[in-house]
Amino acid sequence: MARPAVMALLACALVASCQSPPTTNSTARRIVSLDYCADQFVLGLAQRRDILALSPDAGAAFSYMRAAAAGLSTVRPRAEDVLALQPDLVVRTYGGGPNVRTFFERAGVAVLQIGFADDIDGARAVIRHAARGLGAPERGETLIAGMDARLRLARVHAPGTRALYMTPAGYTAGPGTLVHGLFAAAGLDNFQSRSGWRPIPLERLAYKNPDLVAEAAFGDGTSHDDAWTSFRHPVVRRTVRSVPAAVIDGATRTQQMRRITIPGIMPTIVIILIFTIGNMMNVGFEKIILMYSPGIYEVADVIQSYVYRRGLIDFDYSFSAAVGLFNSMINLALLVGANYLARRVGETSLW
């Protein structure tokens, strides 16, 4: 009974993964989806004849409703490509970049923005909002009823049954995540008691096993077996072999890196890049000074060594101070310019 119950939870996760804003035009008949999360809503709620195009990932292995996407057109999430189709409604979660919503609205195209839900109640509200935005409130209620029915069927475990969700990347989900909400709705206790997404608790697994494992192995033919994470630790493998486990369909390692890891660390990448650009005019001059001699001044000098030589060797303090100030002004201009571009292109900047 363990496998069907957990798979029912995962079916619920399909419709619970996104959150929408207030209703858009309910009479839309030319709908374009910009990413595979939005694809699931469009395929599940909109009339097939109203779907103008889906994202290129609609038929990928990690797209839950990939079978329903067969035969439908796809479009890259670029503004010029989408506008060429003359859509009435654009549906997105992350597709097209952070500023695409404003761009489409200025072009007179309605946008249904989809976010994420963290619990079952939030998922129900999300579906209702998305259904109204897509002009299909009755389908939304039907989808919610089906989700609730699967949740009731999933409650087949004895009280106190502990379940652990594990991904090949070596992470598990605790309180405050949708996975935890699905476990609770199915009458399962989450083996991971710490909130949020955490590394698999290897130390605890060494002396205590869950009663059920939801193994996010994402099917066969992926690259997971070629890389080491805590998911491949002998303690984890022993746990998977010794307790009932349900294998979850989803993304490959490359897809996880593209859709989860890189977006997750992108703010850090942008901040470090801004600081690096702002320090571009500064070069490590210590080794140059150590190997310095008058015969190579013309070919060995960098700005810092030149300032050092003119100020401390030639005692031309005013000129060396002016050169140092000019160098700092260039660094400041580069820093401000990099920050401006980062703010225009994305959502992360220093100020």
Q: Indicate the CATH class of the largest domain.
A: Alpha Beta
How much of the sequence lies in strands comes to 5-15%
Secondary structure: number of strands? 10
Overall 3D shape: flat
Poorly predicted runs are 1-26, 219-228
Q: Supply the CATH architecture of the largest domain.
A: 3-Layer(aba) Sandwich
Helicity range: 40-55%
What's the pLDDT, averaged over the residues? 78
Q: What's the CATH H-level superfamily name of the largest domain?
A: Nitrogenase molybdenum iron protein domain
For the biggest β-sheet, the strand order reads 2-1-3-4
How many individual helices?
14
Please tell me the total number of domains.
3
CATH topology of the largest domain: Rossmann fold
What is the structural class?
A: alpha/beta
What is the CA-CA span between the terminal residues?
A: 54 Å
Gyration radius, to the nearest Å? 27 Å
Q: Could you describe the largest sheet, including whether it forms a barrel? A: 4 strands, parallel
Order of helices and strands: HEHEHEHEHHEEHEEHEHEHHHHH
